[in-house]
């Protein structure tokens, strides 16, 4: 075959691939209709895992590098989720949302809200930083008091430090009749503190936790919603707000959230941090550069570990503040010892 003939064949194959992607997206739309009719959520972690494993298995079957199909599968899954969110027919609602804080998570959450047409204002203890983020997002910034006055929803996009050093304490008198949300990964005493203050200062408090970091595309990702005693009446509004921004709200109670995060975050971060440290130590001791002979599994773990390096402060905060973390760490060490012991016995 000549090059021209081979290229012609490639064009035909490309056409077929695109046609099949179109057909696949049509099925996604039909699933969205069924999910809507049955009131089911968009994400289905178990199904997602099965689909990814199917792609990997097929890659092996057809002799294609697993890395390529993994990227394609991830892309298709992400796009399918965002398609389903769009198809769900967002309620046309434009809300006024104030972000106190201009860090990583404020940036990612505010961007999503701006994108879908909400009026967003950024503020915080440093107005230069607030202005900088507002410029990037194409929204407004204001001094603290005006910004709170402006917003119907006030997102405390602040780290744990701001609660400990009394910064948040100064905000409560301004929050009357507003809906306030913290975004902390581990709610610790902050939930009861904000709940108590919301009762005293007549604001509605609903705690939220975005279940993704600043380096993950947020569309279709989950956000935990934890209503307090004062938040029940606005719970659906909060759910609608985050849903409109392409996130998947999951309503849970405080205990369920903290226990789940003890596994999803404390345990996962612990083993991955240990892996990262062991990798460095062993590479030095064995005088070897393991990346040279990497396997697909090793590369995936390395990618996750590199991503986590960007949120080391948050990882440390969660390890310190999740009420179940001491228990989880103790159990994790015991399990590791058991695994080592059982491997020893097998040999
Ligand atoms: N990063 C994640 O992966 C992730 C995911 C979900 C939830 N969260 C939760 O979100 C929180 C914020 O995360 P982030 O990544 O956005 O953190 P970040 O980028 O460090 O931003 C923290 C924000 O809090 C402000 N702040 C810190 N200490 C303060 C104080 N003492 N008084 C007043 N303002 C203060 C910072 O303002 P200055 O710049 O002026 O200090 C900044 O606006 C975390 O603590 C975590 O619990 C994080």
From TrEMBL:
Keywords, comma-separated and alphabetical: Oxidoreductase
Pfam families membership: CM_2, F420_oxidored
Stretches assigned to the Chorismate mutase domain: 1-88
GO terms (BP aspect): chorismate metabolic process; tyrosine biosynthetic process
Domain named Prephenate/arogenate dehydrogenase: residues: 95-347
Molecular-function GO terms, alphabetical: chorismate mutase activity; NAD+ binding; prephenate dehydrogenase (NAD+) activity; prephenate dehydrogenase (NADP+) activity
SUPFAM superfamilies: 6-phosphogluconate dehydrogenase C-terminal domain-like (SSF48179), Chorismate mutase II (SSF48600), NAD(P)-binding Rossmann-fold domains (SSF51735)
Statement: the UniProt record of this protein carries the keyword Oxidoreductase: yes
Gene3D superfamilies: 6-phosphogluconate dehydrogenase C-terminal like domain, Chorismate mutase, NAD(P)-binding Rossmann-like Domain
Keyword Oxidoreductase assigned: yes
Domain of life: Archaea
Cited PROSITE patterns: CHORISMATE_MUT_2 (PS51168), PDH_ADH (PS51176)
Protein's recorded name: Prephenate dehydrogenase/arogenate dehydrogenase family protein
């Amino acid at each position: 075959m000549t090059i021209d003939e081979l290229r012609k064949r490639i064009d035909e194959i490309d056409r077929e691939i695109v046609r099949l992607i179109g057909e696949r997206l049509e099925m996604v739309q039909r699933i969205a209709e069924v999910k809507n009719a049955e009131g089911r959520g968009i994400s289905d972690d178990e199904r997602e895992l099965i689909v990814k494993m199917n792609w990997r298995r097929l890659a092996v079957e057809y002799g294609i590098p697993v890395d390529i199909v993994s990227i394609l599968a991830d892309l298709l899954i992400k796009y399918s989720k965002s398609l389903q969110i769009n198809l769900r027919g967002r309620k046309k609602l434009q809300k006024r949302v104030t972000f106190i804080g201009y860090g990583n998570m404020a940036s990612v959450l505010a961007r999503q809200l701006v994108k879908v047409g909400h009026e967003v204002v950024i503020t915080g203890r440093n107005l230069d930083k607030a202005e900088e983020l507002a410029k990037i997002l194409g929204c407004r910034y204001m001094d603290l008091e005006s910004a709170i006055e402006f917003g119907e929803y006030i997102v405390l996009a602040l780290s744990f430090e701001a609660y400990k050093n009394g910064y948040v304490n100064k905000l409560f008198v301004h929050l009357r009749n507003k809906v306030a949300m913290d975004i902390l990964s581990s709610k610790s005493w902050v939930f009861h503190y904000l709940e108590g203050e919301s009762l005293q200062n007549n604001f509605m408090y609903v705690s939220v936790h975005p279940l993704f970091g600043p380096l993950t595309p947020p569309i279709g990702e989950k956000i935990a919603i934890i209503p307090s005693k004062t938040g029940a009446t606005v719970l659906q509004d909060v759910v609608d707000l985050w849903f409109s921004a392409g996130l998947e709200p999951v309503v849970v109670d405080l205990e369920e959230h903290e226990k789940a995060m003890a596994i999803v975050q404390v345990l996962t971060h612990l083993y991955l941090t240990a892996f990262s440290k062991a990798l460095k130590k062993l590479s030095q001791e064995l005088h070897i550069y393991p990346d040279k002979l990497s396997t697909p599994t090793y590369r995936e773990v390395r990618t996750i570990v590199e991503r986590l390096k960007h949120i080391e402060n948050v990882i440390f905060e969660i390890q310190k503040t999740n009420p179940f973390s001491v228990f989880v760490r103790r159990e994790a060490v015991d399990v590791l010892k058991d695994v080592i012991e059982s491997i020893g016995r097998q040999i």
